[in-house]
Amino acid sequence: MSSPNTAAQDPAPRDQHTLRIATVNVNGIRAAYNSKKKQTMGDWLAHRDIDILCLQEVRAPDASLRKLLDEDQWEILHSEAVAKGRAGVAIATRKGAEQHPSRLPDQPRQTRIGLPGLDGDEHTGRWVEADYDLPGGTSLTVVSAYVHSGEVDTIRQEHKYAFLERMLTRLPELAEQSDHVLIVGDLNVGHTELDIKNWKGNVKNAGFLPEERAYFDRYFGDIGYVDVARKLAGDVPGPYTWWSYRGQAFDNDAGWRIDYHMATPALAAAARQAVVDRAPSYDTRFSDHAPLVVDYQLV
Fold it and tell me: For the site Interaction with DNA substrate, which positions are given (predicted)?
């Protein structure tokens, strides 16, 4: 895995036979595009040549998302939460232009909103699925997911466990339908001690509870998915994807790695490069999360 990227440019040359898939929790897309910021989400996106862009915490009406992201450039699938100003996930697929042909023209071919089997989830803005046809007859399913942050001994934690539990069923269901499945997003759990700078101080907090981490043991264990960023990075601290706005967390790199690319083995084997696009400084962040960008050799 490449070191965290701190510039608004590609860290390595782009292979023409790769798909570039990015995930980022934007912490409110209208704020991420606010022109008063030193660097906006638009500034970042303009330099990253993304094919599929997955968003979490959109927290905006559908019309606002489509205007900011520009429907002329992107095919947008958006699950807006019924609760205003909460959650919201999206998958945007680049349409392409004369100067920038799309690697996925007229796609996705099929989409679904909500985590199947979880009552009412289609209204929570936490799970969307998109199916793609790739050259050579291969299929690809991409999911943008936003797991509840949770809070110990509250209903919020119960909702989180229900979501994680349902994923135990949905992940193998998707893997039965395609060899190439990718679950990306803010999953709000640090899987191992390498994923949190201050893990000892968080063992009793939501996001690093043993019960939460046990679900990830299963996702990456008997269910068979691969943690792509960890596979490419090896057993090193981080690279982190979220830092609190409070204190000196960002400057001290006291972060959490809670944003994932979870792939079936065949897809994980096609991963060529993973980069955390960490902002160069605190005041150039457009979100409290950094994008996680992975290139897959699929086209």
Answer: 289
Residues with a known catalytic role: 146, 186, 289
Query: Structurally, how many domains does the chain consist of?
Result: 1
pLDDT tens sequence across 242-258: 999 998 999 999 999 99
Query: Domain residues for 147?
Result: 18-297
Sign, CA dihedral 76-95-56-173, equals positive
CATH code of residue 25 = 3.60.10.10
Bind-site residues: 25, 57, 186, 188, 288-289
CB-CB contact of 198 with 240 (8 Å): no
Dist. CA 165–CA 172, nearest whole Å = 12
- Asked if residue 6 is part of any domain, the answer here is no
User: Binding site for Mg(2+): what residues are annotated?
Assistant: 25, 57, 186, 188, 288-289
Residue 52 falls inside a structural domain: yes
